[in-house]
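PROTEIN DESIGN WORKSHEET
SECTION A - STRUCTURE
LENGTH: 311
TOKENS:
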């Protein structure tokens, strides 16, 4: 991997405004003390939505509240502290098909416009909630596990084993040819007209750069080199870390992996801008690192209707 190029524009969901205070999580009284303190601020996640206030000029703030008597009935996680304020996430599971309240939004909907603290609280609570929801049982003995360490570990009371939150690492890459054209592809699950840069999960035993080379080879039959790290982004839908790269194509002929890729083509900057402007091409929303990679190659912001739910 070549040295990082720091010119990728700020990626949503990546600021670190909170001190997570990992050293406090082992205190068995941490959650009860924080729940008893009216100065604590709570992000209440219902399903995958949180209440927000949408202000003027596209700014959005997560609506936080003081703890309530019923919070302890739900999963509670300690998120951290900023400027002397401690933050908790309270996770309420909703029945299948339940509708969000009018003031609630998903992280995909508001992630690009959230304030830094709000984004950190929302992304961390959602990532932990998604993990807790799917790891209720011990992988060793099948027994029911319980949350410990302020929501950052699940423990099996039967055999004492501890289980940590998982993050699934994916690579996402802007592939550019010798004529400085960008490769975009439409996955099978994309909306009509939607295209993005290629991405795929890292496999066990593989480096990040090797995953970039393999994924591009598998999906479009192109050999790439000069794999360069550009930035990364937590992407808790449900539990990914997207690691962004640029890579240079050694060839341009495309051979699509038909069960995954519906279409792919090379774009010049003029072709891309024209297709975005006339609506024939729908690019990923501003919340995503995919959009940042695309604009990094393009050399500026692309004006497009914000579509934050491509898949
Ligand atoms: Zn067990």
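SECTION B - SEQUENCE
RESIDUE ASSIGNMENT:
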């Amino acid at each position: 991997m070549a040295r990082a190029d720091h010119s990728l524009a700020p990626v949503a969901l990546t600021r670190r405004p909170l001190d997570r205070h990992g050293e406090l999580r082992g205190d068995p009284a941490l959650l009860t003390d924080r729940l008893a303190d009216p100065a604590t601020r709570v992000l209440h996640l219902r399903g995958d939505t949180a209440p927000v206030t949408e202000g003027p000029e596209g700014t959005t703030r997560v609506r936080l509240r003081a703890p309530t008597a019923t919070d302890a009935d739900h999963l509670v996680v300690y998120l951290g502290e900023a400027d002397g304020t401690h933050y908790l996430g309270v996770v309420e599971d909703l029945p299948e098909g339940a509708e969000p309240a009018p003031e609630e939004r998903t992280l995909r909907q508001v992630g690009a416009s959230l304030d830094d603290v709000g984004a950190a609280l929302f992304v961390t609570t959602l990532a932990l909630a998604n993990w807790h929801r799917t790891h209720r049982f011990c992988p060793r003995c099948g027994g029911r596990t319980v949350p410990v360490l302020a929501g950052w570990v699940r423990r099996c009371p039967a055999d004492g084993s501890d289980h940590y939150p998982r993050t699934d690492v994916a690579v996402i890459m802007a592939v550019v040819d010798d004529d400085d054209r960008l490769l975009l592809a439409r996955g099978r699950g994309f909306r009509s007209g939607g295209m993005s840069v290629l991405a795929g999960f890292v496999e066990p035993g593989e480096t990040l750069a090797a995953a970039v080379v393999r994924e591009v080879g598998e999906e479009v039959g192109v050999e790439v080199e000069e794999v360069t790290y550009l930035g990364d982004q937590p992407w808790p839908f449900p539990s990914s870390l997207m690691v962004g790269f640029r890579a240079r194509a050694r060839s341009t002929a495309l051979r699509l992996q038909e069960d995954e890729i519906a279409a792919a083509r090379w774009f010049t900057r003029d072709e891309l801008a024209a297709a975005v402007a006339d609506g024939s091409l729908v690019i990923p929303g501003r919340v995503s690192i995919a959009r940042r990679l695309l604009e990094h190659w393009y050399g500026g912001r692309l004006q497009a209707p914000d579509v934050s739910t491509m898949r």
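SECTION C - NOTES
The helical segments are 30-36, 107-110, 116-134, 208-220, 269-277, 289-298.
The two ends are 29 Å apart (CA to CA).
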